Amino acid sequence: MEEFNDNIQGRVPTHVSIIMDGNGRWAQLRGKERVYGHSHGVESVRACVEAAAETGVRYLSLFAFSSENWGRPEAEVNTLMKLMFKAIADEIEALKKQRVRFRVLGDMSRLEPALVEAIRTAEAFTEPEDGKEPILDLIIFLSYSGKWDILQAAKRLAEAHASDPAGTENATADEFASYLVTSGIPDPDLIIRTSGESRISNYLLWQAAYSEFLFVDTLWPDFRKEEFRSALKEYAKRDRRYGKVK
Ligand code: IPE
Ligand code: IPE
Ligand code: MG
Questions:
Q1: Would the N or C end of the chain have less CB density within 10 A of its end CB?
Q2: Conformation bin of residue 179: beta by default, left when phi > 0, alpha when psi is -120 to 50
């Protein structure tokens, strides 16, 4: 591990975010149903959580289900929700042991109440009891889209200043961001999308303002520790200028 960290000269991203894409194609290549790919994708999640914790990444966020994904066939949506239940039940003990704090962000009003309850229980369970910082925050974006997030933030900001128009007038970008569901989480340094697609698909639109992007051809069920580490090596070569000159 030390050797790996030496290679990337201490330039480990604080927050890595992944658009986990290509499960369906991975299954179809094997002559299987799309859901076969989704269940193998859970193993990639486990591998990336471990790789993130080992390399010193502090936040790992994963796009698991978009607002648009509600438009998929009912059977696939149901399977994905069942898989979410199962993954929580199967992984939560191991996450707690590794000192990983689990969080789910998105439009909870569209989820089954029993799933929301399982999520809230899992979140509370992985909250460190000793008040110390976790090793890693694992954030799952579920029933999420960037436009939905920006709109709900705008509504809440307007509501907060309902009786104070000057407050809206003077609102800053930082204040606005405090109403996004990602409030308190640093913006992603690196956003990886698997499966060869080069688009953002309504993901973190506000938060990705200065993220580095990496598009890889690997399908999500094949994206494991080695691929995660390669992505960090690529990130270490990037020169982030934030509009300034050097
Ligand atoms: C990503 O894989 C998982 C979700 C979006 C839920 P896909 O299901 O999009 O797989 P492809 O892109 O069709 O191969
Ligand atoms: C993006 O993948 C959403 C997630 C990975 C959760 P999609 O497969 O839904 O994206 P499009 O439709 O190809 O843009
Ligand atoms: Mg896809």
A1: C
A2: alpha
pTM flag (> 0.70): yes
Is 212's C-beta closer than 6 angstroms to any atom of ligand 2? no
Verify whether residue 69 is a known catalytic residue: yes
Q: What domains can you pick out in the chain, each with its CATH number?
A: 12-146+189-237 (3.40.1180.10)
Q: How far is the CA of 22 from the centre of ligand 3 (A)?
A: 5
Distance CA(148)–CA(106), nearest Å, equals 9
Average pLDDT over residues 118-122: 98
Tokens at residue 200, please?
A: 């953002």
Region 165-192 average pLDDT: 97
Give pLDDT, residue 3.
53
Neighbours of 193 (CB within 10 A): 23
